[in-house]
Amino acid sequence: MQELASALRASEPWQQLAATRADLAEPDRQQLHTECRSLRVALSSERINEFEPHFALKRLQFRTERMKESIARLTGRAAAYVQAFTDAAGLVDFAVDDVLPQLVTYGYPRDVGPATDLDFLSENLIAFQPTVPIFWTGKLVFVSDPLIEEVGQVTGVNLNFSGGMETNRVTLRLLPGAAASWGF
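Given the sequence above, the corresponding structure tokens read:
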């Protein structure tokens, strides 16, 4: 866990958070405090119950919309700080909620061999046909294709049983640097 904490602190989102925090001036802090106080009132139990007393999804929608409205009112360095905080928190959530449980439960990622029919969807998102079938999402795998050679988390699986042939197409969120850190 100490290694995970160190890696998170060394990450780009965490460094960006530290930089934006250091750049905050008193007017920025005041802007953040004002929005925080406003948000506490907007998200009080009474306000949420007035909007929706029973249904959890509608209550979540209400909270999400109030949060978006509050963030949209922020400007300059205060807005940059909130975005950096959101990015860093998202990385922590991903590492602790998605990656760590996979490692604890299943151990090191499985090598699924080279990728065929490879598509680069974005900087860290690919789709491909693995040489070893993959049947569920969340799994950590290592793609030993020379174009990839990286560990990723399976975010989508598509199985097709057409004409007696089975094809498996997978969408993978790459975890840059993970393969090297795990010795692949």
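The longest strand covers residues 150-162. Try to locate this feature in the token string yourself.
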